[in-house]
Amino acid sequence: MSNCSTCPSGSTCTKDKESCGIVNNPLNHIKNVIGIMSGKGGVGKSTVTTLFAKELAKKGYKVGIMDADITGPSIPRLMGVSGQMATGDGTNIIPVTSKEGIKIISLNLLLQDESQPVVWRGSIISSAVKQFWEEVLWGELDYLLIDMPPGTGDVALTVMQSTPINGIVMVSVPQDMVSMIVAKAVNMTKKLNVPVIGVVENMSYIICPGCETKISFHEESGAHDFLKEMGLTLLGELPMTKGFARMTTGQECEDSAKLFAPITDKILEEISKL
Questions:
Q1: pTM of this structure
Q2: How far, in Å, CA of 41 to CA of 29, rounded?
Q3: Taking the C-alpha atoms of 226, 204, 66 and 54 in order, what is their torsion angle to the nearest 10 degrees?
């Protein structure tokens, strides 16, 4: 049943307490639930989730990642826990813990073979996401990051309605088509009264290896006009680098971490305003 005393959004929630459908595990005490969302796939949403989680852990926060991208789970590889298995205690699911101390649950951590396809209908996928919230033993967390699937379908709706989500970090790339799709995702959050913390623009530019000139892939004024029109905060821009590409193998990349550190500070600043 719902329990307002253990709900991360309890102090700011506007839902009718009697009709609230959020079920909280009494063994879990999670202070903040942050969704990482994108309008479409392939923009680096899981990479942003991974970098954000690691930066939070460096700051001393207790962090967890729920990989809600059920049919395309990439968090285990990015976090360097691919091949490990989540366990159970008969009642709860015990998440895998990374070397940074970050607790992680993903469907790939429940499968013997990570290449096994998930041929499920939307309702079953949504049920799995609810289980990740209700049955995983997260314990004490300062931040639970939910890596959401792309788009505005069943799972995004389930996350926003069935978890006490505090806000959304939107991930985009500098393309007109993507901006339109991001707008759809932002409008979805508005309808569900979920705050958008801001936008991380990925693949925004490259640095010339010869002269170190910054080369943007878009007209900055146009991109910033879109953010202003939507009332969105630009949390930061990330370049295309070999370091980000190496993250898919679970490798550490100091340059990527340095690039994301100020973005983490900006996200935390915006969260404090919610």
A1: 0.90
A2: 31
A3: -130
